[in-house]
């Protein structure tokens, strides 16, 4: 048994433990726990703690995929967990920012709709891979940036961008998300009509 091998290198022990406890999935799942805490901290204007929490969430997002690839633990369900926890964390954080009138309340709502469409259209529940459009990918990155930037600048008490601009950026993202959803819907209709001919 490898775990009892005294000649085993420390790195091998670490890799084995990461595989046993499936660290990439634990990192992804941690954002599901961090999201309600982020809401609480932002809603109570505890900006410094919220900024630390957002940094932890970003770090887990960067590490989960890297470790899954490095340890050869990539899976469909792990990818779905990663995307779902990203969407949940960003949506909850943006909802908290909406309570402070920093972003529009419509943004968290449309993100939920876009993510649901993304999962259903990709047939991810049936085990197929998630298929993101280029605009959808850019939107996903922009959601994280918009969720994090006001938290970070309030946490650091540095305001290079006036807070009222975040509200207008949220409307730009609402528009680009609606365009992305419409594009996905039209692509699905074209694929279905092409399959019938």
Plain-language structure description:
The chain is mainly alpha-helical. The chain has one domain (19-196): CDP-alcohol phosphotransferase transmembrane (TM) domain (Four Helix Bundle (Hemerythrin (Met), subunit A)). It is 78% helix and 0% strand. The protein contains 7 helices and no strands. The longest helix has 33 residues, at 164-196.
> Which stretches are low in confidence, meaning pLDDT under 50 for 5 or more residues running?
none
Radius of gyration: 19 Å
Question: For this structure, what is the CATH class?
Answer: Mainly Alpha
Largest sheet: none
Please give the count of helices. Answer: 7
Q: Could you say which structural class the secondary elements and strand pairing correspond to? A: mainly alpha
The count of domains is 1
* Total count of strands: 0
Termini, distance in Å? 58 Å
Average pLDDT across residues?
87
